[in-house]
Structure formats: C-alpha cells, structure tokens
Amino acid sequence: MTLHMKFEIHAVGKIKKSYWRDAADDYLRRIRRYAGAQVREIRDCPPHNKTAAQIREDESRRLLDGVPNSALLIALDSTGQQMSSADFAEFFEKKALNCAGHFCFCIGGSEGLTREFTSRADVVLSLSKMTLPHELARVVLLEQLYRSLSILNNAKYHK
After folding, report:
1. Are 137 and 127 in contact (CB under 8 A)?
2. Could you give all domains of the chain from N- to C-terminal order, each with its CATH number?
3. Global pTM value
C-alpha cells in the first residue's frame, strides 16, 4: 500500500547557522524521496517595545494564517505529547489513511506559541522535555520525519 503524504514545516525565523541549515536541507532532500515537503519561514517579530505575550500573539497569528485548511495542524510545544520514532511512523501511517495525508508542523519563535494556537492544533507534539534552540528543533523534526518515512518504506536507515 502506498501512502501519499505531504509535509509542511512552518517556522518562525530563519536558520542562521550554516551547519544547521546544511543539516536541515539534507533531511529535506531525503524526505522528498518519499513525500512532498516544504518549509515556510515566518519573519520573527522584532522585540522593539513589545512584551513577550505580544510577540507570541503576533507570531502565532502569522503562523496560523498560513496553515492550509486541508492539513492536520501539529504544533510543536514543550507541553505536547512525546513519541518514539516507531510511534511517530505509526502516527503518520494511521493519519494518512484517515485524512488526506497533509501534515503541517508549526514551530514558534523564541517566545513559543500562544495557548489559543496549541488549543486549535489537532496534535501538540514535544520533541523533548529539554529546551532546544529553534534551529536545532527544526533539524530534529526533519530527521524524525525522514526516519518515519524510512520505517514506513522499509529502508535501512532506522535500526
């Protein structure tokens, strides 16, 4: 059975460090062997005369504005559900069979996402109990997406 999946990663800010950018680009290329994939970067909100709550609100609103109605909205947040790599692959398999297989992951900026955003999400996912830099979180997410697709396609990457 072939699963048709499309992944969108919407993230606040650009990856500034070349080593994170290189890693992200590498995993994105690998993912595209199995599924459609794109990254949409939202400009981070300059902190001039704004509170953390105002920044979080502005960035969350702009992230949400770009989410397609057909996509399953997955918010990355430290309060979210954690999964093993095998569980993550199984999650995609089940969801792809029950919906259009269109997944949209949203990664907030340094102030995170609003509670309203996470409550609107179909799934709230945590990559780790530890705090990760946003650039690294994006690389970890992309690697786990690739690992999940490798599992589902019986490739040798996952051990």
Report:
1. yes
2. 6-152 (3.40.1280.10)
3. 0.93
**Where would I find the beta strands (DSSP E) of the chain?**
6-12, 36-42, 72-81, 102-107, 123-125
- In this structure, the dihedral spanned by the alpha carbons of residues 57, 134, 9 and 114, taken in order and rounded to 10 degrees, is -20
- Per-residue pLDDT tens, the chain, 159 aa: give them: 456 899 999 999 999 999 999 999 999 999 999 999 999 999 998 878 899 999 999 999 999 999 999 899 999 999 999 999 999 999 998 888 776 789 999 999 989 999 999 999 999 999 999 888 889 999 999 999 999 999 999 988 766
Please, are residues 41 and 11 in contact by the beta-carbon 8 Å criterion? yes
3 state SS of 144:
helix
Q: How many CB atoms lie within 10 A of CB 46?
A: 9
